[in-house]
Specification:
Distance between the termini: 23 Å
Number of domains: 1
Structural class: alpha+beta
Strand order of the largest sheet: 2-1-7-6-5-4-3
Length: 176
């Protein structure tokens, strides 16, 4: 289901954005390359950012139940492991995620220990704005916040996340 992909990709993508976006800046974010464990926890509010009007009643009920579960689970910690390579750090982590989506981003702060940015994306079905601030508290730990407003099909939803990351190993094993 597209909704599951959207939110699953969003949470997993946070790790790449927060660790990778700094390296795309003029000054490299002071974090180690290798396996990282990133934990997000926050809250979601508002209406699901999907149009359920064209869904069958069964499909609509399924989508609504999934959204209710996701919104309830947002306050619980979610941890993902991600491999941060030098190549990923050098690549623009904000490259277009969807062909129809156009994004403008600006860095508010770019130092070796703090990265703050704002991103505004538009697409035919709505807009998304995001603001993030991340701090490399050491080369092996980081913390940050991410705030998003998703406006799709006339429905608005906000997401506020607290994020923490810790370096696990120089070897990523089978984690990509």
């Amino acid at each position: 289901m597209r909704l599951r992909f959207f939110f699953g990709g969003l949470l997993g993508g946070v790790a790449l954005v927060l660790l990778g976006s700094a390296a795309a800046s003029a000054q490299t974010f002071n974090v180690k390359v290798g396996l990282w464990e990133v934990t997000t926890m926050g809250q979601m509010s508002g209406a699901p950012p999907i149009d359920t009007s064209q869904m069958t009643p069964e499909r609509r009920a399924q989508a609504e139940a999934m959204m209710k579960s996701m919104m309830g689970n947002a306050t619980k910690p979610h941890t993902v492991k991600t491999c941060i390579t030098q190549e990923k750090l050098e690549k623009d982590p904000f490259e277009q995620r969807e062909e129809e989506q156009k994004c403008k981003r600006s860095y508010l702060t770019r130092t070796s220990t703090v990265l703050a940015f704002k991103e505004e994306c538009t697409s035919p079905d709505g807009n998304t704005t995001a603001e993030g601030r991340f701090e490399a508290t050491s080369p092996e730990t980081m913390k940050g916040t991410m705030k998003m407003l998703i406006d799709r099909a006339g429905k608005k939803m906000t997401m506020n996340n607290e994020i923490s990351g810790k370096f696990v190993s120089a070897s990523c094993g089978n984690v990509k």
